[in-house]
Amino acid sequence: MSNPTTTAKQLEVQRIVDVLSKAIAQQRLRPGTRLVESQLVDALSANRNHVQVALQRLAMQRIVTIEPNRGAMVAQPTAKEAREVFIARRAIERAIVECIGPDVIRRHRHRITGHLRGEREAVQSEDRRAIVRELSEFHLILGEISGNDVLSEILSNLMVRSSLIVALYQRNEVPSCQCDEHQAIIDALEAGDNTQAAEIMQEHLDDLEGVLDLDDEAAGEVNLRQVLSDL
Fold this sequence. Notes:
transcription regulation, transcription, three-stranded antiparallel beta sheet, Four Helix Bundle (Hemerythrin (Met), subunit A), 69% helix, mainly alpha, 11 helices, Tscrpt_reg_HTH_GntR, Arc Repressor Mutant, subunit A
């Protein structure tokens, strides 16, 4: 029988991990941003020990770095790491697409249709944060509906790291992940053409990596309470 106290701690640590991962994925917390424990405790109404464990977990996932005498900060992936993340995404997302048949698309049609509508609305609004959130979510949805929890979990980590990479290395301010390409992937999956869907996904990821360069962008000071308040 599990210890209720242990279970409660695990759930609280996971909550903190999830909130910080979401903030990083949505580029609310940019690469290099210092994650001051006392501020996180206040912003998240959390226990300091739970915050410390959550930061250590994120550090193991290469989303946060922890340095002696400097504390924790949002990771700043190198160009080499960026290339390796996209190599991993190509492998993982091809495998995810190959798991999805027409029946899966039909079963999740309402969710997919609603999401693609949200993507278009975000793009039309020109709200960068909304665009990043919606376009990234598409990839996570495919992971979820694939039915392969391991692939989905790996992809979730890669997507957060991809957000850091885009924040550091994207050449312009317009997110390059386009909803038309997402629609084409869904159309191919609905038609039962997984090979075509995988090829479109590969080209899609090639395009995403193609807009990156090696210019680092320094992060400024942020108000953690404000950034994390509605997550």
